[in-house]
Automatic annotation (TrEMBL):
InterPro entries: KH_dom, KH_dom_type_1, KH_dom_type_1_sf, KH_Vigilin_N. This is K Homology domain-containing protein. Residues 901-928, 1193-1253 are annotated as: Disordered. It comes from Patella caerulea. Its main location: cytoplasm. Residues 616-643 form a coiled coil. SMART domains: KH. It is found in: Cytoplasm. Residues 136-204, 208-276, 281-349, 350-416, 421-489, 493-562, 567-635, 639-708, 713-782, 786-855, 859-956, 957-1023, 1035-1104, 1108-1177 form the K Homology domain.
Length: 1253
């Protein structure tokens, strides 16, 4: 067998391989330069860039009129303005169907003018629809000969459709099986005339044409057509008629002639004369010829038959290819049959067949590399066709007898030679091991092929076969078989093991860009680690490889998982939603402090979320610490109390209720307190209640009552009631339901808004009390179900109040009183009657509510509130929010004057007035307030007065704050974010002077209270900025140290790890000199003075260590450098770690490529030097041995063959590696990596033998 240095000749070099797809179909050139294209049309812009032509949709407009007498809708009805007419509805329907626009106008003579605009086809369809549906329809019948109907229809009826569109008519043509020539036309009079004219023109044109169907037997068609159809071609050119002869596959005894009548008659006479003559003179003779020889008689495209017909005038009839008959019939004149028969036998015997016996697996070797062998035979015997039959042990040769014999001899020679020196073997290996035998990128299988020189064929996954085939020389086949057996035996000893790791940790284990999992895989390089796909919610990770390595990796990952569990413990803490902003703190100060102190991750719900749960993640003790700190903040902010009550654990489920309904009802009724039961499965009786003090006491009382009830009886019942009845059953302030509870002693729980079932009411208590409460509730519900109707009188002046804002007041009444329906008179009807429908009990309540509202409206007054119009926008607030708040708070109506002046603007002839000052105008002028300054308030006297005071308090003032100019950019923030936030928080306007003014004054405008709060916040911000400035000054201390540039790389460390650690430890910035700097020795340190000196000390320690090291240069053969460095530098890293030294290899531009420098402690340098020299000595000895063995070996047969042949001939047109040949290897972890794995991109490759070029 081959040694490591020997290149073994592979049988793959002899086997046939098609040329590659890329060779056969090379890639196109880059896009041509269009800069030289002539600058014309729209194909090139002025800049020289290619410009695509714009495709525009073509639109058109058609205008037509409908006379009064033909209009379908003539009536002039009394519809109100804006009401839709029938013809308007029709036009809308047509527009929606066709996508056009239609405009209709009426002339003085009552005729309609219709304008249709849109795309061409759509306009035609719309025009037809309009005329059909808006114009009265007439009809007429026109008689057209039956044989002309198909020309009116056109191909697939298209001509008829076009005619109907252009004339806006409906044309009915009789069916082919109907014996009628009448065509009916329906439509407007104008369209009918046009359609009738067009149909008559088509009929007149067809009347001029002739059509003949000639009864000529199929067997005489060749004589009538002539050799190569020469006779009918000549006739068609002379007469311009069309002659249709059925193809050979259609068995019809006819020929059809059509065209001008004169031409048709001439063709008919000529063809029928030929037919009659041949019918009289022709005789037949039949001969038997082997079926396989028929194709040689026929020839390509029936050329052989035409040749015999042209030479002898005899027609040769050959049975179809799907027939088993071998009889060939010759038809012609008696004296010409003999020569024709001679030509038939000559053509039939011009080709012979022969077979060469060759095993099917040898076929590709017979073909040769790139088809070389078979191409040589084809070139030597050009008339021979060689066919390789798949899965058959033979090669078929076809051609002239003399050449076939020679080709058989040449092929037999190749086959005998291959049989003498090649064999094959098949081994059975479980298919699941095939991908491992192939190896990463085919490395394993390629190694075996190279060492043994054989071809190995491994079945694809689709074949589902366990058989691997080996072909080649006998020694190589045996060796390859042995190696494959060893590999399969070794793989059978492998094991697969699953480990459960929570899915949330998968990304952490994989790491950013797969860095973490790569380290784990490098550590256990024999183990394949497979994570579940991202879409599958699975926690199972699969390990596969040698048993010992799998067990070691399993323990490692198990330990890693345990550490992750410890550091990712999660706990939830319920904090009242209103306190979340206090937990976060100003600028996130509180939450950041808790995170830093406890080293935990704290997630708060979004503002839009209804959840009050804060999630804490980290180590268990840290999480508990953070949780207690957050709860302490809540207790400090409010009167939060936490109590524990003991309730037997066997009652917990019944108290919680189905889907938590009962306990949720208590929590909501008691102001949202938090009630925590012990985890399910524990025997603890302790239940924790936390919340405001009064609510906690109330919840505790209810829990204990419920527990007592459960102990006594625990009886439960349910009552169904419509959701709109619940408010009435509960009553105002809970009066009704409280009455039921007190009279029966049962507990009644209504569904909350979050419950899916909104109709089920639960009753809890003793059996007697539950039955009594159920009876009372059912009675109340029955009364609510009895719908009644009642009326009341409401002054019409108040109707608008009830129905305005889309009936908001009526909707509220309906919701509050069991879904009653309140109907006010329609607009324009003078009536004061209001109808109320609903349950009797609810009607009375609704009546009282309406009367209360009416009384309130009667007692309302109107008050004028005078506020200068320039402040109206500010008073209104964003989106009118301020006004809405005042209206809802004091139950008043507020109306502002029209056309308000922009905020801050001044009315005409008005001057700006400082806060609290007067401009000295006369009192008489002051009393005459402009009507645009008056805001009208409507409501009760006391409410109007309070609302007026509230509005006056919203009138803005302007105050000035002095802020140093240097701080303005910090006040504004990035893109104005900070100043915008301050304006939103305090609802004020903040004006910061432009930069060119260099002013310290900032103006704040808004309501007095808001302005005062904004000023305080601004002052706090200035104090904070002062502190930050002072801190920046302290951090800007600068220190410079002088260090030999040779030591800089060591101070920086591998990937900057050393210098990054120093920077992080001391919080300083360390800058090394750039390559172009004059002084390369200076290192600059910037930061706090104390930190900078500490960083300097750390750097000088490193320098002292480096200066105490020794450096030695040795000579190492350059060929061994890659072996020392190792794959991805692993070898050199191991040496530097083992001996604590630094190795520097020569650069390409260095004069001595063998020189290696070792730096480090004296003892380490000496040991490392000995180690490197030993490696060099071993390498050189191996190299000498390989060269000696190579000299002893004789040249390979492959080399001799290449020298004799002078290189392989050019390949034929066959391709390999085409896109359709490449099936993805889904089992490959490189092409389809495990979840999170990162693999370097590789070129796609088809499995197969290695190609030697």
């Amino acid at each position: 067998m081959a040694t490591n240095s020997e290149v073994v000749h592979s049988v793959e070099d002899e086997a046939y391989e098609p040329q590659t797809y890329n060779d056969a179909f090379p890639a196109l050139e880059a896009a041509r330069d269009v800069s030289n294209v002539q600058q014309q049309g729209a194909w090139q812009s002025q800049t020289g860039a290619w410009k695509h032509p714009t495709v525009r949709s073509i639109k058109c407009t058609q205008v037509f009129s409908v006379p009064l007498e033909e209009r379908r809708f003539k009536e002039m009805d009394d519809r109100l303005f804006g009401d839709e007419t029938e013809q308007t509805k029709i036009c809308k329907d047509i527009m929606s169907k066709t996508g056009v626009s239609i405009e209709i106008s009426m002339a003085k003579d009552q005729s309609l003018t219709v304008v249709v605009h849109g795309k061409g086809d759509a306009v035609m369809k719309a025009r037809r629809e309009v005329m059909t549906r808006l114009q009265t329809q007439a009809n007429t019948i026109v008689s057209i000969p039956k044989e002309h109907h198909r020309y009116i229809l056109g191909k697939s009826g298209k001509k008829l459709q076009e005619l109907e569109l252009s004339t806006a008519t409906k044309i009915n043509i009789p069916r082919p099986d109907e014996n009628s020539d009448s065509i009916k036309i329906v439509g407007p009079k104008e369209g009918i005339d046009k359609a009738k004219h067009e149909i008559q023109l088509i009929s007149a044109e067809q009347a001029k044409l002739g059509f003949e169907r000639l009864p000529i037997l199929k067997i005489f068609h060749p004589f009538v057509c002539g050799p190569n159809n020469q006779i009918i071609k000549t006739l068609m050119e002379e007469t311009n008629a069309k002659i249709n002869v059925p193809p050979p596959s259609v068995m019809k005894d006819e020929i059809v002639v059509s065209g001008e009548k004169e031409g048709v008659i001439k063709c008919k006479d000529t063809l029928m004369n030929i037919y009659e003559e041949k019918k009289k003179k022709c005789q037949t003779v039949s001969v038997e010829v082997r079926k396989s020889q028929h194709k040689y008689i026929i020839g390509p495209r029936a050329a052989g038959l035409h040749e015999i017909l042209g030479a002898t005038g005899v027609s040769v009839e050959v049975p179809p290819s799907d027939s088993t008959s071998e009889t060939i019939t010759l038809r012609g004149e008696q004296e010409k049959l003999g020569p024709a028969l001679t030509m038939v036998y000559s053509k039939a015997n011009s080709v012979v067949f022969n077979d060469v016996v060759a095993p099917a697996w040898l076929h590709r070797y017979v073909i040769g590399r790139k088809g070389a062998n078979i191409k040589k035979i084809s070139e030597d015997y050009s008339k021979v066709h060689i066919e390789f039959v798949e899965n058959q042990d033979k090669i078929t040769i076809e051609g002239p007898p003399e050449e076939v014999d020679e080709a058989v001899k040449a092929l037999q020679k190749y086959v005998d030679d291959l049989k003498s020196r090649m064999t094959f073997a098949e081994i059975t290996v479980d298919q699941k091991f095939h991908k491992h035998i192939i190896g990463k990128s085919g490395s394993n299988i390629t190694k075996i092929k190279n060492s043994t020189g054989v071809s190995i064929q491994i079945p694809s996954d689709d074949e589902k076969s366990n058989v691997i085939r080996i072909e080649g020389n006998p020694e190589g086949v045996e060796e390859a078989k042995k190696q494959l057996h060893e590999m399969s035996t070794r793989m059978e000893n492998e094991k697969s093991r699953d480990i459960t790791i929570e899915q949330r940790f998968h990304k952490t284990i994989i790491g950013a860009k797969g860095e973490n999992i790569k380290e784990i895989r490098d550590k256990f390089n024999q183990v394949q680690i497979t994570f579940p796909e991202a879409g599958k919610k699975s926690a199972v990770v699969t390990l596969r490889g040698p048993k010992n390595d799998v067990d070691r990796s399993y323990k490692y990952l198990q330990h890693y998982h345990t550490e992750l569990l410890e550091s990712n413990y999660q706990a939830e803490v319920h904090i009242f939603k209103g306190f979340h902003k206090n937990i976060i703190g100003k600028g996130g100060a509180n939450i950041r402090k808790i995170r830093d102190e406890t080293d935990t991750k704290i997630d708060l719900p979004s503002e839009n979320s209804d959840s009050d749960v804060i999630l804490i993640t980290g180590k268990r003790e840290n999480v508990e610490n953070a949780k207690s700190q957050i709860e302490v903040i809540q207790k400090e902010l409010a009167n939060i109390k936490e109590v524990t009550v003991e309730i037997p654990s066997n009652l917990h489920n019944s108290i919680i209720g189905a889907k938590g309904r009962l306990i949720r009802a208590i929590m909501e009724e008691c102001g949202g307190v938090i009630i925590r039961f012990p985890p399910e499965g524990t025997s603890s009786d302790k239940v924790m209640i936390r919340g405001p003090k009064e609510d906690v006491e109330n919840a505790k009382k209810q829990l204990m009552e419920m527990a007592s009830e459960k102990k006594l009886s625990g009886f439960t019942a349910e009552v169904q009631a419509k959701a709109q009845y619940h408010k009435f059953l509960i009553g105002r302030g809970g009066a009704n339901i409280r009455k039921v509870r007190e009279s029966t002693g049962a507990r009644i729980i209504f569904p909350t808004s979050s419950d899916k079932d909104q109709e089920t009411i639960s009753i809890i208590g003793t059996k007697e009390s539950v039955e009594m409460a159920q009876k009372e509730l059912e009675g109340l519900i029955k009364n609510l179900d009895n719908i009644a109707e009642s009326e009341m009188n409401v002054d019409p002046k108040h109707h608008r109040h009830f129905v305005s804002r889309r009936g908001e007041v009526l909707r509220q009444i309906g919701e509050e009183y069991g879904g009653v329906t309140v109907s006010f008179p329609r607009s324009g009807v003078k009536s004061d009657k209001v109808v109320i429908k609903g349950p009797k009990e609810c009607i009375e309540g609704a009546k009282k509510k309406i009367q209360e509202i009416v009384n309130d409206l009667d007692s309302q007054i109107t008050v004028d509130c005078v506020i200068p119009q320039k402040y109206h926008r500010t008073v209104m607030g964003s989106g009118g929010q301020n006004v809405k708040n005042v209206c809802s708070k004091f139950n008043v109506g507020i109306k502002f004057p029209d056309k308000p002046i922009a905020n801050g603007g001044m009315a005409e002839n008005e001057e700006n007035i400082p806060n609290g000052e007067s401009n000295g105008t006369d009192e008489s002028d002051t009393e005459k307030n402009h009507k645009n300054d008056v805001i009208v308030l409507t409501g009760t006297p006391e409410n109007c007065k309070a609302a007026e005071q509230e509005l006056q308090a919203l009138v803005p003032i302007t105050e000035e704050v002095s802020v140093p100019y240097d701080y303005h950019r910090f006040i504004i923030g990035q893109k104005g974010r900070d100043v915008r936030k301050m304006m939103q928080d305090f609802d004020v306007n903040i004006s910061i002077p432009p930069a060119e003014e260099n002013s310290n004054t900032i103006r704040i405008t808004g309501p007095p209270a808001n302005v005062e709060q904004a000023i305080e916040s601004m002052k706090e911000r200035v104090v904070q900025l002062d502190k930050e400035k002072e801190d920046r000054d302290l951090r800007s201390f600068e220190l410079t140290i002088d260090v030999n540039p040779e030591h800089h790389p060591k101070i920086i460390g591998r990937r900057g790890m050393v210098i990054s650690r120093i920077r992080q430890d001391h919080g300083v910035n360390i800058q090394f000199p750039d390559r172009g700097d004059a002084d390369q020795r200076l290192i600059k340190i910037v930061g706090y003075e104390k930190s900078a000196n500490a960083a300097k000390d750390d750097i000088m320690k490193i320098v002292d260590e480096l200066e105490s090291m020794v450096t030695e240069t040795i000579k190492l053969d350059r060929r061994i450098h890659p072996r020392i460095i190792g794959a991805k530098g692993r070898g050199i890293r191991k040496i530097t770690e083992d001996y604590k030294v630094d190795l520097r290899f020569p650069r390409p531009e260095d004069s001595d490529p063998d020189q290696v420098t070792i730096s480090g402690p004296e003892e380490g340098v000496a040991d490392c030097k000995d180690h490197l020299l030993n490696i060099e000595e071993e390498f050189l000895q191996d190299a000498l041995d390989q060269e000696y063995l190579k000299d002893l070996q004789k040249p390979s047969r492959h080399d001799n063959k290449n020298q004799n042949r002078g290189g392989p001939p050019q390949p034929g047109f066959m391709v390999k590696d085409a896109p359709w040949d490449k099936a993805p290897d889904t089992a490959s972890t490189d092409e389809f990596p495990s979840f999170g794995a990162v693999n370097a991109p590789k070129a796609a490759q088809v499995w197969g033998p290695m190609r030697k070029r």
